[in-house]
Write a structure and sequence with these properties.
The protein is an alpha+beta fold. The protein has one domain. The chain contains five helices and nine strands; from the N terminus they run H-H-E-E-H-H-E-E-E-E-E-E-E-H. The protein has a five-stranded antiparallel beta sheet with strand order 1-2-3-7-6. Helix 1 crosses helix 4, helix 2 packs antiparallel against helix 3 and helix 3 packs antiparallel against helix 4. The longest helix has 17 residues. It is globular. 33% of the residues are buried.
Length: 216
Amino acid sequence: MKALALLIGSLVAFSQASDDAWLTWPAARAEGIAKAAYEQGRVGGWFDTRILSTDRAYNYKLAATWMHHDVIRATARVLQLTERLTDEEARVLVAEAEAAAPFVVMVEIDPREGSGVIPNDWSAYLQPLRMDGSPGKAVRGTAAPKLRDVRTLAGVRKRNYDYDRYWLTFPDTHQDGTPLVSDQATHLELAVRIAGSEGRVKWPIPALVKAKLPRK
C-alpha cells in the first residue's frame, strides 16, 4: 500500500506539471470523450448451431472500453463536476487509475440464448494495427477484478446489467522488451475468444496517448 501511495503521489505531481487542460473541460466534452472509447462487437456467428448446448451460449454480445489517457481524465472530470471535487481530488482519481497498468480495458459480455453462462477460460488479446490493417504481435490480458473499485475505470455510460463486466490489464511491452506499439501503428485491436469463437473491436490510437507509450 505504501508503494502504491508513493506511485500515485508521483503521478499526481507529473499530471500537475504536464497537462491540466482537462480540468477545464465542460461536462458535454468530457462525456463525449469518455463515451467515444466504447466499442461494440460480437463473439460467434448469429446462428452458430455447432455449439448449441445447455452449458454455453451460441454467441455473445461484446462491448469494450479502452481506458486510455484521455478517457481516464474525461471520467475524472465528469466525477469532479457532478460531485464538486477539487482539482487536487480529481488529480488523485486520475493517478489512481494510471497506476493500475499501461493498458486497461473494461470488457462487457452478454451471452445470447443457450445457457447464458460465460466460460471461465475465455481470453483476450491486445494487438496494434498498422495503417494497411496488418496486425502486430499481440499481448494477452490479465483479469484484474479489483479495478472495479477504481472509479475512473468504470466509464461514464449507464450500466447495462445484461452484460457481465470484466477489467483486464495489458503490458505495453512484450516479454523480450520490445514495445507493443510501433511508430507504424494507427489502431489497437482487442480480440476476445470464447468457446472456440472470436470477436474483435478496435480503436484509433490518440496522438497524445501514442506519444506517451514506449516505442522503438
